[in-house]
Amino acid sequence: MTTELRVLDAERWDDWYGKLERAFGGPAESREERALWRELTDCERSLAAWDGDEIAGTAGAFSFRLSVPGGALVPAAGVTMVSVQPTHRRRGVLTSMMRRQLDDVRAAGEPLAVLTASEPAIYGRFGYGQATDQMRLEIDTNRVRLNLPAGTDRVRLRIVAPTAAREECEAVYAQRVAARPGMLARQPGWDRLPLLDPKANRDGAGELLCVLAEVDGEVRGYARYAVRPIWSPATGPDGAVLLRDVEALDPVAYAALWNFLFGLDLTSSVRIRNRPADDPVLHLVSDVRRCGIGLRDGLFVRTVDVGAALEARTYATPVDVVLDVEDAFCPWNAGRWRLAGDAKGATCARTGDSADLALSARELGAAYLGGFSLSALAAAGRVTELRPGALAEASAAFGSDVKPWLPHGF
Ligand SMILES: CC(=O)SCCNC(=O)CCNC(=O)[C@H](O)C(C)(C)COP(=O)(O)OP(=O)(O)OC[C@H]1O[C@@H](n2cnc3c(N)ncnc32)[C@H](O)[C@@H]1OP(=O)(O)O
């Protein structure tokens, strides 16, 4: 079997997307969601693997700008919509699409490619490393109390329709992006993603609502949520607050939003699928054991251009190290790079000097946003220290005070 890779003809989008849905066992999406993905698809960056006149594989890319340590927004290809038909699996179709895509990303001058994986085992072989994680919470609000900071009572809360509050929420979100590595600057149309609320997907919950937190007349935060009413025959109300997202620009607005969610009548839990693992709410609660905490992988990062990627971020402490990078899938990155930088900026260029640390592209991706330390990777045998002291120096420099985190999938 041979397949031929071609850029997606926009007129074939329905067929192409239908094949993607089939590979995912779908379609499970609502009409609204499908229409949004149609609008957001960049056909010129989408590939179809053709077997004769049949689509055997799909892969796409969004043109994102990713927040990195130091607050810069770095061009990053957002790899998405990857699938291979069940009739064509395990014959190298994915590998051929990854090959073509990374060549295209390099040609476009984007230093990074990023993705969220259906299964985390797939993408390491192509040099993607898990760079962030995400925390889910299912908080027992009957048992857990909140310790509110002084001034929380100054916050005024207002419930509004999410669409009516879109601009205010987006203004808050935009300010959060540079403050947390791993977040994506909003591209046109992406503000509609958190507003999707098709009836068919509510699973017993009411409509999506938005609560705005205002301090001195200014919107300082928001939460979008729905309530799923649950009535137990024996004890009565046992509803769940399904929190979609929550962002705030100061501690009192943040605490007030959580206090509101905890206090919703006839509910006994607040559930959310995706929060950063250093969410301040963990320092507001009286009992973390009853917060139903779970962790899973988030964003995967691939350094497509090692020099440009390492120069695009800043470093928590001064660093001057030579990295010996192994990169079989993108061999233009392989070899020694001298990275010199600090909190103001960095240079990263080819060098003939002897190496201080050896690692592969996958580890570089994992450490890139500062979420996973080089020391931890070294302890797992995935980074090798060649000059004593270099690991501690580089590990501290790569670290991020704020945990990197991606708020939504793509
Ligand atoms: C960013 C995103 O869009 S994530 C979504 C990914 N898509 C899905 O999960 C949809 C369902 N799955 C599929 O469509 C396919 O099985 C794919 C895309 C995951 C794999 O496609 P294939 O064409 O079968 O992959 P390909 O034959 O190129 O395999 C390359 C290697 O990856 C391995 N591999 C492929 N899929 C998986 C997997 N799910 N888990 C672990 N390893 C895998 C193969 O075993 C092979 O390993 P090898 O090089 O050591 O022999």
From TrEMBL:
Gene3D superfamilies, A to Z: 3.40.630.30, SCP2 sterol-binding domain (3.30.1050.10)
Quaternary structure note: Homohexamer; trimer of dimers.
Biological source species: Streptomyces fildesensis
Assigned keywords, A-Z: Acyltransferase, Transferase
Protein biosynthesis found in the keyword field: no
One Pfam family, short name: Acetyltransf_17
Residue intervals of the N-acetyltransferase domain: 3-149
Protein name: GNAT family N-acetyltransferase
CDD domains: NAT_SF
UniProt-annotated catalytic positions: 123 (proton donor), 410 (proton acceptor)
Residues where acetyl-CoA binds: 82-84, 90-95, 118-119
Family, per entry: Belongs to the acetyltransferase Eis family.
SUPFAM superfamilies: Acyl-CoA N-acyltransferases (Nat), SCP-like
This protein's record includes keyword Acyltransferase: yes
InterPro entries per record: Acetyltransf_17, Acetyltransferase_Eis, Acyl_CoA_acyltransferase, Eis_dom, GNAT_dom, NAcTrfase_Eis, SCP2_sterol-bd_dom_sf
Chain ranges passing through the membrane: none
